[in-house]
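for the recovery benchmark. tokens below, seq after
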């Protein structure tokens, strides 16, 4: 190609190059315009989202402020309700101490003589067992000191027959008021009686030989002849009463001069442990009908009153606990089996851990196989290890 032809092509190449540059610039401009539109759209959306977020934040703050006000209102209502509940508890405690007028409990002399005659006819007869219980105490498996409450002498127990968890406390050896705690926890944790209901009995009780059995309180009233009062814990009324058919009673335990009759419960039912001047050296035992309070059978036992501090019945066998005038270690030293299925020499010599003084009461729970004891103001639980009787 000659030089003159190259000169002719140069203008054509310049025109083509300018056309390409123009197209490229238009393309770039279109892309920038599209990008600007997208940036503008994102800015609008971001601004809208920011406004919505701010509105939502303000709404949440308003809701939190309202919730805080409602929480304060609820707290105030709860405090007011707690005050009303506390006042209601005090009013209920007050109402529970109020009882209807004491019923007239008259002593039928003819009926009492008949009961004494019937009981004496069956005195010292062999007892026909109602259950197949053949256990006796082997040893004290464990001891637990719950607390110290009230006087040096007293009684605490559960219902020996029912499933109630209530704790019944008789403070002292003569009074007319029983404290009732709803559960063991309330009795253990609280030193005062604020958590306890109070039952004011129609007649004062004496001693520490009382019993709670199948929703009823069997307690000893002293006014002339000793009476066993059957008191309904549900209705707060006297259901029945009976003059104990034993003449010239004396304290049943040598170391507990305030207890004349010990009402006890075991797997067989209700028992009465007592003593009379007729045989003032030894302890007597009687089987009670829990419904009518009649004496079903009576026994003179070989267990001496001297240095005795308490007693309980297990599977138809009387266990008498002894100590010394100067408090030492309590021990079961005499066992009397009314059915004759336990030889005296086969009965275990059971020792209780030495604590503070001597027991003013010992209540056996056949349902739990443990003893609720009151030792110089301390409330103690003894868990018993049982074994089978070796029949004679």
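predicted aa per position
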């Amino acid at each position: 190609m000659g030089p003159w032809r190259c000169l002719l092509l140069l203008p054509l190449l310049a025109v083509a190059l300018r056309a390409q540059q123009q197209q490229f610039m238009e393309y770039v401009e279109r892309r920038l315009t599209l990008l600007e539109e997208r940036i503008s759209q994102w800015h609008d959306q971001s601004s809208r989202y920011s406004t919505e977020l701010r509105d939502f934040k303000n709404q949440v703050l308003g809701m939190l402020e309202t919730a805080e006000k409602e929480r304060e209102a609820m707290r105030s209502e709860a405090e007011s309700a707690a005050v009303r509940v506390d006042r209601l508890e005090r009013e209920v405690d007050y109402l529970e101490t109020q009882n209807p007028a004491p019923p007239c409990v008259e002593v039928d002399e003819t009926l009492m003589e008949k009961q004494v005659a019937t009981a004496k006819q069956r005195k010292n007869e062999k007892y026909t067992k109602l259950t197949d219980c053949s256990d006796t105490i082997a040893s004290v498996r464990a001891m637990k000191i719950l607390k110290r409450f009230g006087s040096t002498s007293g009684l605490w127990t559960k219902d020996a027959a029912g499933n109630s968890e209530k704790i019944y406390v008789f403070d002292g050896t003569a009074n007319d008021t029983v404290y009732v705690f709803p559960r063991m926890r309330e009795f253990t944790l609280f030193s005062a009686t604020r958590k306890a209901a109070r039952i004011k009995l129609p007649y004062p009780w004496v001693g520490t030989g009382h019993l709670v059995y199948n929703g009823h309180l069997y307690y000893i009233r002293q006014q002339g002849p000793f009476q066993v009062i059957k008191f309904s814990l549900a209705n707060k009324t006297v259901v029945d009463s009976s003059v104990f058919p034993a003449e010239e009673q004396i304290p049943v335990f040598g170391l507990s001069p305030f207890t004349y009759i010990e009402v006890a419960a075991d797997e067989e039912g209700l028992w009465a442990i007592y003593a009379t001047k007729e045989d003032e050296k030894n302890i007597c035992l009687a089987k009670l009908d829990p419904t009518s309070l009649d004496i079903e059978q009576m026994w003179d036992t070989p267990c001496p009153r001297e240095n005795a501090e308490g007693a309980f019945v297990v599977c138809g066998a009387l266990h008498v606990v002894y100590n010394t005038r100067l408090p030492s270690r309590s021990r079961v030293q005499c066992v009397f089996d009314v059915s004759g299925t336990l030889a005296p020499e086969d009965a275990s010599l059971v020792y209780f851990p030495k604590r503070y003084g001597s027991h003013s009461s010992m209540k056996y729970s056949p349902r739990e196989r443990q003893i609720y004891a009151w030792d110089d103001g301390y409330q103690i639980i003894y868990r018993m290890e049982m074994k089978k009787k070796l029949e004679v």
